[in-house]
């Protein structure tokens, strides 16, 4: 591109907008009636540190345009706000603004309906239960279910970025189910429904509302809190079972960049691939994060062996935007029985899916994700000095190779038998593992 053309491009306000924001702006302009000025929810990233002075200077440059500050994201020298189209264009012409992103709404990656992963032997033969490894469930909250608080309370911390409440709760029910998939100890079921890492601590971070929705700015704030408090609460893993359409690459996606920062800070981040399959290239954001462990779903068909497992039709397929190879792994995700949050939205809407008084079942890659988070907790208990990259590489290397393309299942189905010297990627090892181990978490 010539120098003149480059200057012309930089004069246009869209040169600082992410692809998702450009797309939304065009949609609004095509429908907008003369004289109206529709509003957009955006995240503004500054070139300098986020300070009161920087905000005052920005407001001075905008003149009469209103610039309310909703959330300050010092993590990125950014803030979220709601602006008109005219204000957005002025913002993009301000010298102090680096980029402007659409503050997108994300949803819990729930499809509709019992967990299976090979953790029982690791617990019985090696004593691997996730003890000492805490998992942050960044979702709709966590209800203090008996399987999490008895015989002692394993909800080590709770932070609410939606309603500001201090005590653990879950008005949707999704996050509580995930916490059980990862770390439920089967207290209420007398050991029948046990998660992958039943002695791991749970850090509940509420970023999604009662409907299971939340904005990028809220989720980023939740991830930033996990990074800032990782040593205080022993957070080694973040489980993210939420997402939305990936419009650009990770460079164009601030939530994806937040995931990358968490990994660089030493936290293993496990993310749902999404439920938009079976089409090619349907990996959701932030599952397109290069450093995250992106998880798809399989149907375990209620059998002990992994060889007969089938890819779930709804599980999002790779590659991710930009050609990135995703997903990384798959795990059981159909009809998973876990913890019920009484009175929550899902508890009321899916009353027919209750299992006894304390449990209910769900389906989706959102359920597969905490199972892999639990597997990562077992690995970190055995080898506590592993980096996030080493955790990811180890789980991928020892995954069970199902007969599907990498675009469907990545490296294969998560398999923790290698922690006790049973199972592996070779046919002989797989046969030994299948004959020796039951894959049920119960």
Automatic annotation (TrEMBL):
Matches recorded under Gene3D superfamilies: Peptidase S8/S53 domain (3.40.50.200)
Recorded GO MF terms: hydrolase activity
Signal sequence, renumbered to the chain: none
SUPFAM superfamilies listed in its UniProt record: Subtilisin-like
InterPro entries (UniProt xref): Peptidase_S8/S53_dom (IPR000209), Peptidase_S8/S53_dom_sf (IPR036852), Peptidase_S8_Asp-AS (IPR023827), Peptidase_S8_Ser-AS (IPR023828), Peptidase_S8_subtilisin-like (IPR050131), Peptidase_S8_subtilisin-rel (IPR015500)
Protease as UniProt keyword: yes
The protein, known as: S8 family peptidase
Organism from which the protein derives: Paenibacillus aurantiacus
Family indicated by similarity: Belongs to the peptidase S8 family.
CDD domains with a match to the protein in the record: Peptidases_S8_1
Keyword Ribosomal protein: no
Domain Peptidase S8/S53 intervals: 130-399
Sorted UniProt keywords: Hydrolase, Protease, Serine protease
EC numbers, comma separated: 3.4.-.-
Catalytic site: 139, 174, 366
Coiled-coil regions, chain positions: none
Transmembrane segments: none
